[in-house]
Amino acid sequence: MADFQSELKALAKPGDRGDGCRVFIETYGCQMNVYDSQAIGGLLNKDGFDTAADIFEADVVLLNTCSVRELAEHKIISRVGEIRRQRRNAHLPSVTVGICGCMAERLGDELQKGNNRVDLVVGVDNYDKLPGMISELMATQTATRRKRTATGHRTDAHYVAPPVIYPVNNSHLVTIHKGCDYKCTYCIVPYTRGPQTEKSPQAILEEIRTLVETGATEVTLLGQNVTAYHWQKEMDFAALLESVSGIEGLQRIRFLTGHPRDMHQHTMDAIGALDKVCPWLHLPIQSGSNAILKRMKRLYKKEEYLEMVDYARQVVPDVTFSTDIIVGFPGETEEDFQATLEVLRRVKYDQIFSFKYSERPGVPAAKLADDIGTNEKKRRLAEVMALQEKIWNVEAAREVGKTWTGIVEAPARHPGDSWRVRTPNNRKFVVADNLIDQGLKIGDEVSARITGFANTTFLTGE
Ligand code: SF4
Q: Is residue 252 within 6 Å of ligand 1 at its C-beta?
């Protein structure tokens, strides 16, 4: 595989193409997009573009988008109109708007038609073309501008976000691969992000070493299916974890997201044995019914999933689990749905991300009749959420009185009262401001006694 960063030097003439043109990037969707936006920002800065603080300050607005749900795409289309309207109302000149990410890859030229058309469409593997495309657009009279699209998958396009703009909640994101080789029937990702293509272990280790040199102590390894990481038959995900663990100065390693089918026993053994690897597994089950799992093409059975959870509990101390659930998949009977609830009762997840099934054009499930009515989907979703809340309230209450240790990440959502701390197994607690006044800062380790909880956040006190 080509070294993409050195290729970039040939593709771009760094330094002055942007000539101070200000770009604002709005990010939607998953952590992969968060990382990609940082990489795009780095690419543009390197080429003489400046970062704008908001849409009003910008010459160019890029929306880095998600296609996972129809609603997410609708929101982006409205957002384009809203940006243009807000600029008009502020008596500002028309702004160049570009769409990046999954929606750009899925819809391509379509986004350059209609009322809310955009000037630029750049898919997930073509961000290195952005500086040139923007420069060309900015140099052309608005009225005569040609629309620009760059989409299509490339195996060599692995972007690296510069460390200076990198930290997210004190955990530095590092993508280890892109795309996905599975074809879960409801999922658009294999079509928008292409086949699974790995970053080399050397590139990953080098990226993390650079981060550590600039002060990072924690990384989150990112990918659509990190547990399937495999570098030329030499290194699988467990071996990669071991190599990353060897980096001196790095203290914690998290990872997102794994596929249950690739969470092998030896991977769990490695997670349990390597002190730096955090014991939190986000393993999307999607449904507790084998019939539905088969229709989703998830390639595991409920029983195998539960065995995996049991094994992880044996070999990974303090492990916690979170998951994704889809309710109302085509043909989901009440019995199928009850099987999903049963899995929730059995696993006792810390957190679930549950969604009503929504059809995505072009994926295999779109050929199945979307036969569960909207109200029934809503009812099932509400039931899943209510059950999770009930289970969590019992589990969380068991933690009261214990002393936890975690890393200070950021001010809590409600300012003025506390700071958010995350434990290795991904539980969140808040500590009072006065500890910060005493010199505690982001990235520091802090211990506190759990006194209660509100939803998934734990409260602490003396
Ligand atoms: S594993 Fe399935 S759900 Fe996950 S990204 Fe790949 S196709 Fe989509």
A: no
